[in-house]
Design goal:
By secondary structure, the protein is α+β, with helices and mostly antiparallel strands. Helix content is about 25%, strand content about 20%. The protein is built from four helices and four strands.
Length: about 100
């Protein structure tokens, strides 16, 4: 019930269910996300590190979509952005942290 996929596919969630989802906490799976950036002299490869969940308590992952989402925004019905609709895989900035 506290999965990102559940929250994305069930928009009309009652207050009681939202409260239970909040109590259960966010989903923090180890995702397989990697990105290669081209530098001046070489390429740089970055891989997802699950320690990011410790730094950003609002962050939740979806193993089905292999992307990151704003758990608080999904549970509370936050703004419609990449963090609540498609998910992020890069260095996107969330307005709450900017």
């Amino acid at each position: 019930m506290n999965s990102v996929d559940f929250l994305l596919t069930n928009k009309d969630i009652t207050y009681e269910i939202r409260t239970e989802i909040k109590r259960l906490g966010r989903q923090i799976p180890d995702l397989i996300i990697s990105k290669t950036d081209v530098g001046k002299s070489r390429n740089y490869s970055r891989n997802f590190n699950s320690s990011v969940y410790d730094r950003f308590k609002w962050l939740s992952g979806c193993p089905k979509r292999n992307k990151l989402f704003c758990f608080i925004c999904l549970v509370m019905g936050g703004n419609q952005s990449t963090w609540t609709q498609e998910g992020c895989v890069g260095k996107g900035r969330h307005k709450a942290t900017a």
